[in-house]
Amino acid sequence: MLVKSNGVVLQQIRYSDSAIVVQAYTREMGRQSFMVKGLRSKKSGRHSALFQPLFMLDMVFYFKISGTVHLLKEFSVKYLPANIYSDVKKSCIALFLGEVLTSVLREEAPDYGLYGFIEDSVKYLDNSGSDFSNFHLSFLISLSSYLGFEPGIRTNPSDKYFDLLNGKFIPGIPAHQDFAGREISEILAMIYSTSYEGAAKIPLTGKMRNEVLETILRYYSIHLPGLKRIKSLEVLKEIFN
Fold this sequence. Notes:
- By secondary structure, the protein is α+β, with helices and mostly antiparallel strands.
- The chain has 2 domains: 2-81, CATH 2.40.50.140; 128-239, no CATH class.
- The protein has helices at residues 88-104, 112-127, 135-147, 182-192, 196-200, 206-223, 233-239, and strands spanning 2-16, 19-26, 30-37, 56-62, 69-79, 161-163, 168-170, 179-180.
- The strands form 2 sheets. It has a 5-stranded mixed β-barrel.
- The chain is globular.
């Protein structure tokens, strides 16, 4: 079956000297894997650089219902995140988010709301100025709502601790160990209740930002058992330290 769809590139893996396997989140078919051949052919116009994380493509591919890897027939760049790949920090965020999305997007059914959120978020990061150091924190929090474990917004200032197990703010330390301390919980409460623009204005040291990131990923691991280790995490933490 021949399918036309927009897609956001998540990751690429080298398959041979002239082929790669690309993980992408498509608008019409959810997360899928694609074989891309002919990368060394000048006539094909194909190059692996066009399959970097968060590139947006218009795709035509052969979809096999029983297959796990589909053959990409045609593609063109729908949106080129040029500013992301001209900035070291933004490109590190792109690599990190591509890896996270590859790990957590397990559904192969379409989710137009989620696809729109990812597209809009990529464009926001690409066009943001100097205030994007907290973007990945805000993205992960917003993404959790599409994955089914959105944390509850704090409505009472006396709720000083974030309960990771139950996804809500509470007034005292819970009986279990899966909770965030008061300082991290305060930052999470601010991020949970604001936009990308608002999150950018939250002043954080590199150390504190990394602690918040570790807490969010811990929250993910609790609600997504079997979540793979994010290899690019340490590089991202170093960049924003």
